[in-house]
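sorry to bug you again but im stuck and you know this stuff better than me. what follows is a protein written twice so to speak, once as letters and once as structure tokens for the fold. id like you to explain what the token line says about the fold, in plain words if possible. anything you notice is useful, everything is just below.
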Amino acid sequence: MLIPARTGVASAARDDATPWRLRIPADTWLLAGVTIVGAVLRFTTLASQSYWFDEAQAAHELHLSFGAMLHLWSADEPNPPLYFVLAWPWAKLFGTGAAGLRSLSALLGTAVIPITYLCGRELVSRRAGLVAAAFAALSPFMIWYSQEAREYMLTAALAGASVLFFARTWRRPSRRNLAWWTVFSGLALLTQYFVGFLVAAEAILLLYRLRSRACLVALGALAAVQAALIPHLITHASHPASWIDGFPLSIRVQQVPVTFGLGTLYQSSLVSDGLLGAAVLAGCVIVLLVIGADAAQLRGAGLAALLAGAVLLVPLALAWLGHDYYEARALMPGWIPLAVVIGAACTAPRARAPGAALALVLLAAFVYAGIRIDHSPQYQRPDWSGVAAALGRASGTRAIVAYDGVFATAPLAIYLPGVPWNGPGQTPQTGEAPLTVRELDIVGSTAQRLTPRLPAGVKLIGSRAVNGYLVDRFELTGAWHLTRAQLGARATTLLGPAPPGPAVLIQYPST
């Protein structure tokens, strides 16, 4: 009778003497390391790129009062308001500069890494969760949007939490798990409309699984959240993004797998092989799962595949029917379930060697793409802060003709003091009243060349190349008294033809 008692006491004593570091599971240490790596990749280069159009618009809106911000959200933003509601106090604390405002997305993007692990662990296994978390940490796609002052990482985090509690409710039905799924799904719906495809798939599966009154109540609550957004959704659905029409659906479909895997390298020739690469990867994943996974892991991977398929394929079917909003960043809610499926294939117990090889190939591709993006300006955001630096300060009223058109207006208004806001929500600078300027600056392309002989009264006072842009500054010995349209036309005689719709901004001397 004494021996077991003494053995138990001795065992307890040994456990107490074991260093706390050794009592923490190995996968927790691995997850911590992966998360730290992901955080470093997100935060260390947070302000290395300029705001582009969408971010400049957000920075402008978040600089306003809360009421004015909500008014502009309602008029100009195509997605629900939760990001702006959360980012507004964040901007008041940390500012609307690139590092301050983007830090919210970087923090959320870092949180996505453990969320992805938890989803993989719940649906498949700890090892699958770790591999999926490594994908989230190193993915150029996830890093890119973790460094963008928009709603995408909030979408990913909340969609991931929705997937996590869907999985927990599926495996261990309880009112607590169902309530948390409802909360996170509702918050995700308040962040981005494409989350609706994910939540709808989860809701159908849970309704089939539970067949309970509590499930119906949860679905009713989510339906009420979605119904509250219908007026905003209808307003913006009737005015889709104009740029969509400039890129055929077939091209955007090819871009999705390349973007999901290699980020902005979709702008390279790799896009032509996007669907082929996706098909090869899908084939490898299916083979590894079939030959290597057990029944429980197959079921979990199958659930994740259903969720990813709902996000990727239902909008594609709607696009073919004429409701076309198909683009990679809008499909963000499907990224975590897709990573879980691939993580399951890479860790299938009876196919560990080929699975590990696939994981290493994918992670190496992520690292390669990240390095190439970091060292290639053509794959980065337009360098509007560099353009603003090349333009310098205005000594008098001057006209700036930007060949990038509307995409230049909001960023330059952020980076150039004395340029009135000319983005969405404000009256564009398109009036025809003549303006008097003594300097005309042109932001064109480095592929363009100055006219061999400048007109009389025009003197080149500066020319700088800035990551693909050519910034030319001209002093006018006699002031020009012209409308914006006329100033834009004069610019084409100095630097060659402009694409349709160049923007003409007026900068006034800053005090």
User: Anything to note?
Assistant: Strands lie at 398-402, 435-445, 458-466, 469-482, 503-507. The chain has a mean pLDDT of 90.
